[in-house]
Specification:
It is built from 16 helices and no strands. The protein has one domain. The longest helix is centred in the middle third of the chain and has 36 residues. The C terminus is likely disordered. By secondary structure, the chain is mainly alpha-helical. Helix 3 runs antiparallel to helix 9, helix 3 crosses helix 14 and helix 10 packs antiparallel against helix 14.
Length: 429
Protein backbone atom coordinates (compact mmCIF):
# COMPACT_ATOMS: atom_id res chain seq x y z
CA UNK A 1 0.00 0.00 0.00
CA UNK A 2 1.47 3.36 -1.05
CA UNK A 3 1.68 6.28 1.35
CA UNK A 4 -1.01 8.28 -0.44
CA UNK A 5 -3.31 5.24 -0.43
CA UNK A 6 -2.75 4.72 3.28
CA UNK A 7 -3.53 8.36 4.08
CA UNK A 8 -6.49 8.73 1.71
CA UNK A 9 -8.20 5.53 2.89
CA UNK A 10 -7.63 6.13 6.61
CA UNK A 11 -11.02 7.88 7.19
CA UNK A 12 -12.75 4.89 5.54
CA UNK A 13 -10.82 2.19 7.40
CA UNK A 14 -11.26 3.72 10.85
CA UNK A 15 -13.53 6.32 12.42
CA UNK A 16 -11.42 9.04 13.99
CA UNK A 17 -12.29 11.29 16.91
CA UNK A 18 -12.55 14.32 14.60
CA UNK A 19 -15.36 12.61 12.72
CA UNK A 20 -17.42 12.00 15.88
CA UNK A 21 -16.92 15.52 17.24
CA UNK A 22 -17.68 17.14 13.90
CA UNK A 23 -20.76 14.98 13.40
CA UNK A 24 -22.11 15.92 16.84
CA UNK A 25 -21.68 19.65 16.24
CA UNK A 26 -23.17 19.50 12.77
CA UNK A 27 -26.02 17.31 14.00
CA UNK A 28 -26.90 19.94 16.60
CA UNK A 29 -26.91 22.65 13.92
CA UNK A 30 -29.10 20.45 11.74
CA UNK A 31 -31.60 20.08 14.60
CA UNK A 32 -31.73 23.87 15.08
CA UNK A 33 -32.28 24.24 11.34
CA UNK A 34 -35.22 21.82 11.42
CA UNK A 35 -36.76 23.84 14.26
CA UNK A 36 -36.29 27.05 12.25
CA UNK A 37 -37.82 25.39 9.19
CA UNK A 38 -40.85 24.36 11.26
CA UNK A 39 -41.26 27.92 12.54
CA UNK A 40 -40.86 29.26 9.02
CA UNK A 41 -43.57 26.96 7.69
CA UNK A 42 -46.02 27.62 10.53
CA UNK A 43 -45.49 31.25 11.57
CA UNK A 44 -43.54 33.06 8.85
CA UNK A 45 -45.41 32.13 5.71
CA UNK A 46 -46.46 35.75 5.41
CA UNK A 47 -43.91 38.04 3.76
CA UNK A 48 -41.37 39.52 6.14
CA UNK A 49 -39.99 43.05 6.03
CA UNK A 50 -40.91 45.21 3.04
CA UNK A 51 -42.51 43.48 0.10
CA UNK A 52 -44.14 40.21 -0.91
CA UNK A 53 -41.04 39.43 -3.01
CA UNK A 54 -38.28 40.65 -0.71
CA UNK A 55 -38.52 37.89 1.88
CA UNK A 56 -37.23 35.50 -0.76
CA UNK A 57 -33.96 37.41 -0.77
CA UNK A 58 -32.02 35.10 1.54
CA UNK A 59 -33.36 31.90 0.00
CA UNK A 60 -32.59 33.00 -3.55
CA UNK A 61 -29.16 34.10 -2.33
CA UNK A 62 -28.56 30.63 -0.87
CA UNK A 63 -29.78 28.94 -4.03
CA UNK A 64 -27.57 31.05 -6.31
CA UNK A 65 -24.59 30.59 -3.95
CA UNK A 66 -24.73 26.79 -4.05
CA UNK A 67 -25.48 26.74 -7.76
CA UNK A 68 -22.44 28.96 -8.31
CA UNK A 69 -20.29 26.80 -6.05
CA UNK A 70 -21.37 23.61 -7.81
CA UNK A 71 -20.91 25.04 -11.28
CA UNK A 72 -17.58 26.67 -10.41
CA UNK A 73 -16.20 23.57 -8.69
CA UNK A 74 -16.93 21.24 -11.59
CA UNK A 75 -15.59 23.82 -14.05
CA UNK A 76 -12.35 24.15 -12.05
CA UNK A 77 -11.88 20.39 -12.08
CA UNK A 78 -12.65 20.15 -15.79
CA UNK A 79 -10.29 22.99 -16.72
CA UNK A 80 -7.48 21.49 -14.65
CA UNK A 81 -7.96 18.14 -16.40
CA UNK A 82 -8.23 19.55 -19.91
CA UNK A 83 -5.15 21.71 -19.35
CA UNK A 84 -3.34 18.59 -18.08
CA UNK A 85 -2.05 20.27 -14.92
CA UNK A 86 -0.46 17.29 -13.17
CA UNK A 87 0.14 19.31 -10.00
CA UNK A 88 -3.64 19.49 -9.49
CA UNK A 89 -4.15 15.73 -9.12
CA UNK A 90 -4.93 16.22 -5.42
CA UNK A 91 -7.52 18.91 -6.22
CA UNK A 92 -9.81 17.23 -8.75
CA UNK A 93 -11.64 14.79 -6.46
CA UNK A 94 -12.56 17.28 -3.76
CA UNK A 95 -13.75 19.75 -6.41
CA UNK A 96 -15.94 17.12 -8.05
CA UNK A 97 -17.49 16.01 -4.76
CA UNK A 98 -18.08 19.62 -3.71
CA UNK A 99 -19.90 20.24 -6.99
CA UNK A 100 -22.35 17.37 -6.55
CA UNK A 101 -23.10 18.21 -2.92
CA UNK A 102 -23.52 21.91 -3.67
CA UNK A 103 -26.15 21.12 -6.30
CA UNK A 104 -27.97 18.88 -3.80
CA UNK A 105 -28.05 21.63 -1.16
CA UNK A 106 -29.24 24.10 -3.80
CA UNK A 107 -32.23 21.84 -4.30
CA UNK A 108 -33.16 22.09 -0.63
CA UNK A 109 -33.08 25.87 -0.89
CA UNK A 110 -35.72 25.67 -3.60
CA UNK A 111 -37.90 24.03 -0.95
CA UNK A 112 -37.15 26.92 1.42
CA UNK A 113 -38.21 29.36 -1.31
CA UNK A 114 -41.53 27.59 -1.72
CA UNK A 115 -42.27 28.10 1.97
CA UNK A 116 -44.77 25.29 2.53
CA UNK A 117 -43.50 21.76 1.93
CA UNK A 118 -46.97 20.66 0.84
CA UNK A 119 -46.78 23.05 -2.10
CA UNK A 120 -44.23 20.73 -3.68
CA UNK A 121 -47.11 18.44 -4.57
CA UNK A 122 -48.93 21.31 -6.29
CA UNK A 123 -45.84 22.10 -8.37
CA UNK A 124 -45.70 18.54 -9.69
CA UNK A 125 -49.46 18.40 -10.30
CA UNK A 126 -50.21 21.91 -11.53
CA UNK A 127 -46.83 23.48 -12.29
CA UNK A 128 -46.49 25.53 -15.47
CA UNK A 129 -43.53 25.23 -17.81
CA UNK A 130 -42.84 28.97 -17.61
CA UNK A 131 -42.47 28.83 -13.81
CA UNK A 132 -38.96 29.56 -12.43
CA UNK A 133 -39.41 26.69 -9.98
CA UNK A 134 -39.83 24.29 -12.92
CA UNK A 135 -36.75 25.76 -14.65
CA UNK A 136 -34.65 25.54 -11.53
CA UNK A 137 -35.81 22.04 -10.71
CA UNK A 138 -35.19 20.56 -14.15
CA UNK A 139 -31.87 22.35 -14.54
CA UNK A 140 -30.80 21.23 -11.09
CA UNK A 141 -31.59 17.59 -11.86
CA UNK A 142 -29.52 17.84 -15.04
CA UNK A 143 -26.61 19.43 -13.13
CA UNK A 144 -26.66 16.75 -10.42
CA UNK A 145 -26.66 13.91 -12.97
CA UNK A 146 -23.88 15.47 -15.06
CA UNK A 147 -21.69 16.33 -12.06
CA UNK A 148 -22.24 12.92 -10.44
CA UNK A 149 -21.31 11.10 -13.65
CA UNK A 150 -18.19 13.23 -14.01
CA UNK A 151 -17.27 12.59 -10.36
CA UNK A 152 -17.87 8.84 -10.54
CA UNK A 153 -15.88 7.97 -13.66
CA UNK A 154 -12.38 8.92 -12.39
CA UNK A 155 -13.27 7.46 -8.97
CA UNK A 156 -13.55 3.88 -10.29
CA UNK A 157 -9.83 2.94 -9.87
CA UNK A 158 -9.90 4.14 -6.26
CA UNK A 159 -13.08 2.16 -5.57
CA UNK A 160 -11.20 -0.94 -6.71
CA UNK A 161 -8.37 -0.11 -4.32
CA UNK A 162 -10.87 0.45 -1.51
CA UNK A 163 -12.55 -2.93 -2.12
CA UNK A 164 -9.19 -4.61 -1.48
CA UNK A 165 -8.74 -2.90 1.91
CA UNK A 166 -12.16 -2.84 3.57
CA UNK A 167 -13.98 -5.81 5.08
CA UNK A 168 -17.51 -4.73 6.06
CA UNK A 169 -18.89 -3.45 2.74
CA UNK A 170 -16.48 -4.98 0.26
CA UNK A 171 -19.34 -5.97 -2.08
CA UNK A 172 -20.48 -2.34 -2.23
CA UNK A 173 -17.15 -1.17 -3.62
CA UNK A 174 -16.83 -4.14 -5.97
CA UNK A 175 -20.23 -3.34 -7.42
CA UNK A 176 -19.31 0.30 -7.98
CA UNK A 177 -15.96 -0.56 -9.56
CA UNK A 178 -17.68 -2.62 -12.33
CA UNK A 179 -14.89 -5.15 -12.62
CA UNK A 180 -12.12 -2.61 -13.07
CA UNK A 181 -8.73 -4.18 -12.25
CA UNK A 182 -6.37 -1.49 -13.48
CA UNK A 183 -4.59 -3.19 -16.38
CA UNK A 184 -2.84 -0.91 -18.90
CA UNK A 185 -5.65 -1.11 -21.47
CA UNK A 186 -8.30 -0.17 -18.91
CA UNK A 187 -6.20 2.72 -17.64
CA UNK A 188 -5.69 4.20 -21.11
CA UNK A 189 -9.39 3.82 -21.93
CA UNK A 190 -10.39 5.36 -18.62
CA UNK A 191 -8.24 8.44 -19.19
CA UNK A 192 -9.73 8.96 -22.64
CA UNK A 193 -13.28 8.53 -21.32
CA UNK A 194 -12.66 10.99 -18.48
CA UNK A 195 -11.38 13.63 -20.92
CA UNK A 196 -14.36 13.10 -23.22
CA UNK A 197 -16.76 13.32 -20.31
CA UNK A 198 -15.02 16.48 -19.10
CA UNK A 199 -15.43 18.11 -22.51
CA UNK A 200 -19.13 17.22 -22.77
CA UNK A 201 -19.95 18.34 -19.23
CA UNK A 202 -17.97 21.56 -19.73
CA UNK A 203 -19.95 22.53 -22.83
CA UNK A 204 -23.31 21.50 -21.38
CA UNK A 205 -22.88 23.28 -18.05
CA UNK A 206 -21.49 26.42 -19.68
CA UNK A 207 -24.47 26.63 -22.01
CA UNK A 208 -27.12 25.83 -19.40
CA UNK A 209 -25.65 28.10 -16.71
CA UNK A 210 -25.42 31.18 -18.92
CA UNK A 211 -28.99 30.55 -20.04
CA UNK A 212 -30.08 30.37 -16.40
CA UNK A 213 -28.37 33.68 -15.62
CA UNK A 214 -29.94 35.43 -18.61
CA UNK A 215 -33.33 33.88 -17.85
CA UNK A 216 -33.49 35.95 -14.65
CA UNK A 217 -34.46 39.01 -16.69
CA UNK A 218 -37.55 37.20 -17.97
CA UNK A 219 -38.87 36.55 -14.47
CA UNK A 220 -39.82 40.16 -13.68
CA UNK A 221 -38.76 43.71 -14.55
CA UNK A 222 -36.39 44.08 -11.59
CA UNK A 223 -33.49 46.29 -12.73
CA UNK A 224 -30.55 44.21 -11.49
CA UNK A 225 -31.84 41.12 -13.28
CA UNK A 226 -32.00 42.89 -16.65
CA UNK A 227 -28.26 42.75 -17.25
CA UNK A 228 -26.54 41.86 -20.52
CA UNK A 229 -23.40 40.73 -18.66
CA UNK A 230 -25.25 38.42 -16.28
CA UNK A 231 -24.14 35.27 -18.15
CA UNK A 232 -20.35 35.82 -18.24
CA UNK A 233 -20.49 37.60 -14.86
CA UNK A 234 -22.05 34.55 -13.21
CA UNK A 235 -19.51 32.20 -14.81
CA UNK A 236 -16.55 34.32 -13.66
CA UNK A 237 -17.99 34.76 -10.17
CA UNK A 238 -18.69 31.04 -9.85
CA UNK A 239 -15.10 30.14 -10.72
CA UNK A 240 -13.69 32.66 -8.21
CA UNK A 241 -16.03 31.39 -5.50
CA UNK A 242 -15.25 27.74 -6.23
CA UNK A 243 -11.48 28.31 -6.17
CA UNK A 244 -11.79 30.05 -2.80
CA UNK A 245 -13.96 27.29 -1.28
CA UNK A 246 -11.72 24.53 -2.70
CA UNK A 247 -8.64 26.16 -1.14
CA UNK A 248 -10.40 26.21 2.25
CA UNK A 249 -11.51 22.59 1.89
CA UNK A 250 -7.99 21.52 0.90
CA UNK A 251 -6.63 23.15 4.06
CA UNK A 252 -9.17 21.32 6.24
CA UNK A 253 -8.56 17.99 4.49
CA UNK A 254 -4.80 18.44 4.73
CA UNK A 255 -5.00 18.92 8.48
CA UNK A 256 -7.73 16.35 9.25
CA UNK A 257 -6.38 13.44 7.20
CA UNK A 258 -2.68 14.23 7.38
CA UNK A 259 -1.99 14.79 3.69
CA UNK A 260 0.77 17.34 4.19
CA UNK A 261 3.11 15.42 1.88
CA UNK A 262 0.65 15.54 -1.01
CA UNK A 263 -1.36 18.74 -0.48
CA UNK A 264 1.76 20.89 -0.31
CA UNK A 265 2.53 24.58 0.05
CA UNK A 266 3.32 24.69 -3.67
CA UNK A 267 -0.17 23.41 -4.44
CA UNK A 268 -1.74 26.17 -2.33
CA UNK A 269 0.41 28.83 -3.98
CA UNK A 270 -0.60 27.64 -7.44
CA UNK A 271 -4.26 27.53 -6.45
CA UNK A 272 -3.85 31.05 -5.10
CA UNK A 273 -2.45 32.17 -8.45
CA UNK A 274 -5.38 30.53 -10.22
CA UNK A 275 -7.71 32.52 -7.96
CA UNK A 276 -5.79 35.69 -8.86
CA UNK A 277 -6.34 35.09 -12.57
CA UNK A 278 -10.04 34.44 -11.94
CA UNK A 279 -10.37 37.64 -9.88
CA UNK A 280 -8.65 39.64 -12.64
CA UNK A 281 -11.24 38.27 -15.06
CA UNK A 282 -14.14 38.92 -12.70
CA UNK A 283 -13.24 42.39 -11.37
CA UNK A 284 -13.78 44.39 -14.59
CA UNK A 285 -17.02 42.52 -15.26
CA UNK A 286 -18.20 43.41 -11.74
CA UNK A 287 -17.41 47.11 -12.19
CA UNK A 288 -18.82 47.36 -15.71
CA UNK A 289 -21.90 45.37 -14.79
CA UNK A 290 -22.84 47.79 -12.02
CA UNK A 291 -21.89 51.12 -13.60
CA UNK A 292 -23.63 50.40 -16.89
CA UNK A 293 -26.93 50.39 -15.05
CA UNK A 294 -26.95 54.17 -15.59
CA UNK A 295 -27.00 53.77 -19.39
CA UNK A 296 -30.70 52.96 -19.58
CA UNK A 297 -33.44 55.47 -20.25
CA UNK A 298 -35.53 54.30 -17.33
CA UNK A 299 -34.78 56.29 -14.17
CA UNK A 300 -35.12 53.07 -12.16
CA UNK A 301 -31.82 51.89 -13.59
CA UNK A 302 -30.10 55.10 -12.50
CA UNK A 303 -31.54 54.69 -9.01
CA UNK A 304 -30.21 51.15 -8.77
CA UNK A 305 -26.69 52.11 -9.85
CA UNK A 306 -26.60 54.94 -7.35
CA UNK A 307 -27.96 52.77 -4.57
CA UNK A 308 -25.12 50.23 -4.76
CA UNK A 309 -22.24 52.72 -5.04
CA UNK A 310 -23.26 55.81 -3.02
CA UNK A 311 -26.50 55.13 -1.17
CA UNK A 312 -27.92 52.40 1.07
CA UNK A 313 -25.99 49.44 -0.40
CA UNK A 314 -22.70 51.33 -0.78
CA UNK A 315 -21.00 49.86 2.35
CA UNK A 316 -21.61 46.33 1.07
CA UNK A 317 -20.46 47.20 -2.45
CA UNK A 318 -17.19 48.84 -1.38
CA UNK A 319 -16.62 46.03 1.10
CA UNK A 320 -17.02 43.50 -1.71
CA UNK A 321 -14.58 45.39 -3.92
CA UNK A 322 -11.82 45.83 -1.35
CA UNK A 323 -12.14 43.00 1.19
CA UNK A 324 -13.28 40.34 -1.26
CA UNK A 325 -11.33 41.18 -4.40
CA UNK A 326 -8.59 43.80 -4.09
CA UNK A 327 -7.06 42.76 -0.74
CA UNK A 328 -7.08 38.99 -1.49
CA UNK A 329 -5.56 39.84 -4.87
CA UNK A 330 -2.74 41.79 -3.22
CA UNK A 331 -2.15 39.01 -0.68
CA UNK A 332 -1.98 36.30 -3.34
CA UNK A 333 0.49 38.14 -5.60
CA UNK A 334 2.99 39.00 -2.86
CA UNK A 335 5.96 36.57 -2.97
CA UNK A 336 6.63 37.19 0.73
CA UNK A 337 3.11 35.99 1.57
CA UNK A 338 3.33 32.80 -0.51
CA UNK A 339 2.36 30.50 2.35
CA UNK A 340 -0.57 28.24 3.14
CA UNK A 341 -1.79 30.55 5.90
CA UNK A 342 -2.03 33.65 3.73
CA UNK A 343 -3.48 31.84 0.72
CA UNK A 344 -6.22 30.37 2.92
CA UNK A 345 -6.78 33.83 4.47
CA UNK A 346 -7.23 35.37 1.03
CA UNK A 347 -9.56 32.55 -0.03
CA UNK A 348 -11.65 32.90 3.14
CA UNK A 349 -12.06 36.65 2.64
CA UNK A 350 -13.07 36.13 -0.97
CA UNK A 351 -15.60 33.38 -0.17
CA UNK A 352 -17.29 35.34 2.63
CA UNK A 353 -17.52 38.54 0.64
CA UNK A 354 -18.87 36.85 -2.48
CA UNK A 355 -21.84 35.65 -0.44
CA UNK A 356 -22.71 39.31 0.12
CA UNK A 357 -22.09 39.93 -3.58
CA UNK A 358 -24.75 37.36 -4.45
CA UNK A 359 -27.00 39.08 -1.89
CA UNK A 360 -26.36 42.31 -3.78
CA UNK A 361 -27.49 40.68 -7.01
CA UNK A 362 -30.79 39.55 -5.49
CA UNK A 363 -31.96 42.07 -2.89
CA UNK A 364 -31.48 45.52 -4.51
CA UNK A 365 -33.49 44.36 -7.49
CA UNK A 366 -36.41 43.06 -5.45
CA UNK A 367 -36.56 46.27 -3.39
CA UNK A 368 -36.95 48.38 -6.56
CA UNK A 369 -40.50 47.93 -7.78
CA UNK A 370 -42.76 49.13 -10.54
CA UNK A 371 -45.60 49.74 -8.11
CA UNK A 372 -46.67 52.10 -5.34
CA UNK A 373 -44.71 50.48 -2.53
CA UNK A 374 -41.61 52.61 -2.97
CA UNK A 375 -37.98 51.64 -2.39
CA UNK A 376 -36.30 50.24 0.69
CA UNK A 377 -33.73 47.81 2.03
CA UNK A 378 -34.41 44.28 3.19
CA UNK A 379 -32.67 42.63 6.14
CA UNK A 380 -33.30 38.94 6.91
CA UNK A 381 -35.06 37.77 10.06
CA UNK A 382 -33.44 35.46 12.62
CA UNK A 383 -35.23 32.44 11.19
CA UNK A 384 -33.90 33.21 7.72
CA UNK A 385 -30.35 33.53 9.07
CA UNK A 386 -30.69 30.16 10.81
CA UNK A 387 -31.85 28.55 7.57
CA UNK A 388 -28.85 30.08 5.82
CA UNK A 389 -26.43 28.65 8.40
CA UNK A 390 -28.35 25.38 8.31
CA UNK A 391 -27.79 25.07 4.57
CA UNK A 392 -24.05 25.42 5.14
CA UNK A 393 -24.10 22.87 7.96
CA UNK A 394 -26.02 20.44 5.73
CA UNK A 395 -23.38 20.86 3.02
CA UNK A 396 -20.62 20.14 5.55
CA UNK A 397 -22.53 17.12 6.92
CA UNK A 398 -22.70 15.66 3.42
CA UNK A 399 -19.02 16.37 2.84
CA UNK A 400 -17.97 14.76 6.14
CA UNK A 401 -20.17 11.75 5.36
CA UNK A 402 -18.47 11.36 1.99
CA UNK A 403 -15.09 11.04 3.73
CA UNK A 404 -16.36 7.88 5.47
CA UNK A 405 -17.14 6.08 2.21
CA UNK A 406 -15.04 7.55 -0.60
CA UNK A 407 -11.40 8.65 -0.95
CA UNK A 408 -11.28 12.45 -0.99
CA UNK A 409 -8.07 12.44 -3.03
CA UNK A 410 -7.65 10.76 -6.40
CA UNK A 411 -5.14 8.10 -5.35
CA UNK A 412 -4.35 6.75 -8.79
CA UNK A 413 -3.77 10.21 -10.27
CA UNK A 414 -1.48 11.24 -7.41
CA UNK A 415 0.39 7.93 -7.76
CA UNK A 416 0.86 8.56 -11.48
CA UNK A 417 2.03 12.09 -10.72
CA UNK A 418 4.61 10.79 -8.24
CA UNK A 419 5.83 8.09 -10.64
CA UNK A 420 5.77 10.47 -13.58
CA UNK A 421 3.57 8.12 -15.57
CA UNK A 422 0.63 8.61 -17.87
CA UNK A 423 -1.62 5.65 -17.31
CA UNK A 424 1.06 3.00 -17.96
CA UNK A 425 1.20 1.55 -14.49
CA UNK A 426 -0.18 -1.77 -13.40
CA UNK A 427 -2.51 -2.76 -10.61
CA UNK A 428 -5.89 -1.35 -9.57
CA UNK A 429 -5.59 2.26 -10.58
Amino acid sequence: MSEIEKKALSPILRMGRWFLVTSFILGFLAFITLVALYIYNTEEKAPTELYPESYWGVHITNFVFYMALGFGAVMVSILLRLLKTDWAAAVNRIAEIAAVLAFVVAGFNIIFEIGDLLWLVDIFLYGQLDSPFIWDGLLLIFFIIAAAAYMYMPMVPDLTRTSLRVHEIKAFYRFLSFGYIGNPIQRVRLRKMVLRMATLVFLALLLMTTLLAWAFEEVSPHPVWNEALSGPLFVAEAIVLALAIIIIMLAVLRSAVGLQDFITRTLFVRMGKAMVYAILLYLPLFVIGTFTMTSGDDSMFVSFSDSIWVNEFAPITWGIAFFGLVIPLLIAIQPRLASIRFVVLAATMTALVLIFKIYMVVVPGITRHLNAYGDGIHWPTLVEWVLMVGSLSFFIILMVSMTRFFPMVSIWEVDDQIRGEDGKGVGPG
